[in-house]
Amino acid sequence: MRIVELDSRTPERLDRLLEVWERSVRATHAFLSGGEVKAIKAYVPQALREVPHLVVGEDGRGVPVGFLGADGQRLEMLFLLPEARGKGLGRAMLQYGMERYGLRELAVNEQNPQARGFYEYMGFRVYRRTETDEQGGPYPLLYMKL
Predict the structure, then answer these.
(1) What is the mean pLDDT of residues 63-69?
(2) pTM of this prediction?
């Protein structure tokens, strides 16, 4: 695996990252219906284009298997293909973001306990909880800081 920063966000590259996002969400966000995933998916390309720092984890053939988005000291997104989980890529990408961008905070869905556990393992702690997500949906968020 290798970690690269995206200089060019071509439509083809973003399409591949959208596939990673969807497979990751379907594997880890069981609390979302298929319709909700589809509705959220419509906004992901814009988020991928606009996040200031986009880092991709690639396999040995250069195929994206995960990505991280950062804005200032905030982790905005971290998604891995299901088959890439548990192999150290998420940890390596988050450490890269922490070292390169000074990542110190994030928000995670409360209904995604594996993600919360991963971030806690990486040293993050919950400091605030909301009843809804940032779009007003019925999905509590946990805000975490190092």
Answers:
(1) 96
(2) 0.92
